[in-house]
From TrEMBL:
Name of this chain's protein: Acetyltransferase (GNAT) family protein
Family matches, as InterPro entries: Acyl_CoA_acyltransferase (IPR016181), GNAT_dom (IPR000182)
Organism: Marivirga sericea
Pfam families in UniProt: Acetyltransf_1
Keyword annotations: Transferase
Domain N-acetyltransferase positions: 2-170
Coiled coil: none
GO MF terms, alphabetically ordered: acyltransferase activity, transferring groups other than amino-acyl groups
PROSITE patterns: GNAT
Highest classification ranks of the organism: Bacteria, Pseudomonadati, Bacteroidota, Cytophagia, Cytophagales
Length: 170
Protein backbone atom coordinates (compact mmCIF):
# COMPACT_ATOMS: atom_id res chain seq x y z
CA UNK A 1 0.00 0.00 0.00
CA UNK A 2 1.27 3.45 -0.92
CA UNK A 3 1.56 6.00 1.88
CA UNK A 4 2.09 9.74 1.82
CA UNK A 5 3.37 11.36 4.97
CA UNK A 6 5.62 14.11 6.19
CA UNK A 7 9.33 13.46 5.90
CA UNK A 8 11.35 13.24 9.11
CA UNK A 9 14.92 14.15 10.02
CA UNK A 10 15.74 10.44 9.63
CA UNK A 11 14.95 10.87 5.91
CA UNK A 12 17.47 13.67 5.27
CA UNK A 13 20.18 11.45 3.77
CA UNK A 14 17.67 9.83 1.43
CA UNK A 15 16.23 13.24 0.51
CA UNK A 16 19.74 14.51 -0.34
CA UNK A 17 20.35 11.37 -2.39
CA UNK A 18 17.09 11.85 -4.34
CA UNK A 19 17.96 15.48 -5.03
CA UNK A 20 21.35 14.37 -6.33
CA UNK A 21 19.66 11.79 -8.57
CA UNK A 22 17.32 14.55 -9.83
CA UNK A 23 20.26 16.85 -10.61
CA UNK A 24 21.99 14.07 -12.56
CA UNK A 25 18.78 13.39 -14.50
CA UNK A 26 18.33 17.12 -15.25
CA UNK A 27 21.93 17.35 -16.45
CA UNK A 28 21.44 14.31 -18.68
CA UNK A 29 18.25 15.84 -20.12
CA UNK A 30 20.12 19.12 -20.71
CA UNK A 31 17.64 21.12 -18.66
CA UNK A 32 18.23 23.68 -15.93
CA UNK A 33 19.88 21.83 -13.04
CA UNK A 34 18.85 22.39 -9.43
CA UNK A 35 21.55 23.66 -7.10
CA UNK A 36 22.49 21.70 -3.99
CA UNK A 37 19.64 22.11 -1.53
CA UNK A 38 21.01 23.10 1.90
CA UNK A 39 20.38 20.67 4.73
CA UNK A 40 19.21 23.63 6.81
CA UNK A 41 16.43 24.32 4.29
CA UNK A 42 15.33 20.68 4.23
CA UNK A 43 15.42 20.52 8.03
CA UNK A 44 13.26 23.64 8.31
CA UNK A 45 10.76 22.21 5.80
CA UNK A 46 10.60 19.03 7.91
CA UNK A 47 10.08 21.03 11.13
CA UNK A 48 7.36 23.09 9.41
CA UNK A 49 5.76 19.91 8.01
CA UNK A 50 6.24 21.06 4.42
CA UNK A 51 8.49 18.22 3.25
CA UNK A 52 6.62 15.11 2.05
CA UNK A 53 7.39 11.59 0.93
CA UNK A 54 5.56 8.87 -0.96
CA UNK A 55 6.41 5.42 0.37
CA UNK A 56 5.85 2.31 -1.75
CA UNK A 57 6.68 -1.10 -0.33
CA UNK A 58 8.72 0.48 2.44
CA UNK A 59 10.87 2.61 0.08
CA UNK A 60 10.70 6.33 -0.55
CA UNK A 61 9.47 6.61 -4.12
CA UNK A 62 9.28 10.38 -4.29
CA UNK A 63 9.67 13.56 -2.29
CA UNK A 64 8.44 17.13 -2.62
CA UNK A 65 7.89 20.27 -0.61
CA UNK A 66 4.77 22.39 -0.20
CA UNK A 67 4.22 26.03 0.69
CA UNK A 68 1.17 28.23 0.99
CA UNK A 69 2.94 31.38 -0.23
CA UNK A 70 5.30 31.91 -3.15
CA UNK A 71 5.44 35.68 -3.77
CA UNK A 72 8.81 35.85 -5.52
CA UNK A 73 7.68 33.43 -8.23
CA UNK A 74 3.96 34.07 -8.40
CA UNK A 75 4.16 37.80 -7.69
CA UNK A 76 0.64 39.39 -7.88
CA UNK A 77 -1.03 35.98 -8.23
CA UNK A 78 0.31 34.98 -4.81
CA UNK A 79 -2.83 36.47 -3.22
CA UNK A 80 -4.87 33.50 -4.52
CA UNK A 81 -5.28 30.76 -1.88
CA UNK A 82 -2.93 28.08 -3.20
CA UNK A 83 -0.71 25.13 -2.41
CA UNK A 84 2.63 25.38 -4.18
CA UNK A 85 4.53 22.21 -5.02
CA UNK A 86 8.32 22.40 -5.14
CA UNK A 87 11.22 20.09 -5.99
CA UNK A 88 9.37 16.91 -6.87
CA UNK A 89 12.14 14.32 -6.99
CA UNK A 90 11.60 10.66 -7.80
CA UNK A 91 13.50 7.59 -6.82
CA UNK A 92 14.87 6.28 -10.16
CA UNK A 93 13.59 2.81 -9.23
CA UNK A 94 10.04 4.16 -9.55
CA UNK A 95 10.30 6.28 -12.71
CA UNK A 96 7.61 5.51 -15.25
CA UNK A 97 5.14 4.40 -12.57
CA UNK A 98 3.01 7.57 -12.58
CA UNK A 99 4.38 8.70 -9.22
CA UNK A 100 3.92 12.39 -10.07
CA UNK A 101 0.27 11.78 -10.93
CA UNK A 102 -0.19 10.14 -7.52
CA UNK A 103 1.43 13.15 -5.87
CA UNK A 104 -0.91 15.46 -7.78
CA UNK A 105 -3.98 13.44 -6.75
CA UNK A 106 -2.84 13.70 -3.13
CA UNK A 107 -2.24 17.45 -3.56
CA UNK A 108 -5.84 17.96 -4.66
CA UNK A 109 -7.11 16.43 -1.42
CA UNK A 110 -4.49 18.28 0.63
CA UNK A 111 -5.30 21.64 -0.99
CA UNK A 112 -9.03 21.22 -0.36
CA UNK A 113 -8.37 20.27 3.27
CA UNK A 114 -6.39 23.51 3.60
CA UNK A 115 -9.18 25.47 1.86
CA UNK A 116 -6.97 26.40 -1.08
CA UNK A 117 -8.33 27.19 -4.53
CA UNK A 118 -5.30 26.23 -6.61
CA UNK A 119 -2.41 23.82 -6.83
CA UNK A 120 0.57 25.50 -8.44
CA UNK A 121 4.05 24.60 -9.56
CA UNK A 122 6.80 26.03 -11.66
CA UNK A 123 9.76 24.87 -13.69
CA UNK A 124 12.80 26.85 -14.72
CA UNK A 125 13.46 27.08 -18.43
CA UNK A 126 11.39 26.08 -21.41
CA UNK A 127 11.32 22.34 -20.82
CA UNK A 128 8.83 21.16 -23.46
CA UNK A 129 8.76 17.64 -22.00
CA UNK A 130 7.68 18.92 -18.57
CA UNK A 131 5.20 21.36 -20.10
CA UNK A 132 3.56 18.49 -21.97
CA UNK A 133 3.70 16.20 -18.93
CA UNK A 134 2.22 18.67 -16.44
CA UNK A 135 -0.57 19.65 -18.82
CA UNK A 136 -1.33 15.93 -19.32
CA UNK A 137 -1.67 15.73 -15.52
CA UNK A 138 -4.39 18.38 -15.61
CA UNK A 139 -2.43 21.57 -15.01
CA UNK A 140 -3.10 24.67 -17.06
CA UNK A 141 0.10 26.06 -18.54
CA UNK A 142 0.08 29.78 -17.78
CA UNK A 143 3.17 30.60 -19.81
CA UNK A 144 6.69 31.76 -19.11
CA UNK A 145 7.65 34.72 -16.96
CA UNK A 146 10.88 36.52 -16.21
CA UNK A 147 11.09 36.88 -12.45
CA UNK A 148 11.73 40.39 -11.15
CA UNK A 149 13.83 39.40 -8.12
CA UNK A 150 15.61 36.06 -7.79
CA UNK A 151 18.08 37.12 -5.08
CA UNK A 152 16.27 35.15 -2.33
CA UNK A 153 15.53 32.11 -4.52
CA UNK A 154 17.73 29.09 -5.24
CA UNK A 155 20.39 29.95 -7.83
CA UNK A 156 18.81 28.14 -10.78
CA UNK A 157 15.94 30.67 -10.87
CA UNK A 158 18.34 33.32 -12.17
CA UNK A 159 19.28 31.18 -15.20
CA UNK A 160 16.09 31.29 -17.27
CA UNK A 161 12.44 32.33 -17.38
CA UNK A 162 10.01 30.27 -15.32
CA UNK A 163 7.06 28.22 -16.60
CA UNK A 164 3.98 28.52 -14.40
CA UNK A 165 1.33 25.82 -13.98
CA UNK A 166 -1.95 25.91 -12.10
CA UNK A 167 -4.79 23.54 -11.37
CA UNK A 168 -8.11 24.40 -9.73
CA UNK A 169 -9.16 22.33 -6.74
CA UNK A 170 -12.80 22.63 -7.82
Amino acid sequence: MNQIENSTVKDINEILHLYQDAREYQYKKESVVWPNIPISMITQEIIDKHQWKLIINGKIAGIWATTFQDPLIWEDRNVDPSVYLHRIALNPDFRGQKIVKEIIEWSKIFAKSEEKQFIRLDTVGENQGLIKYYTSCGFDYLGMVNLKDTSSLPAHYAKAPVCLFQMSTE
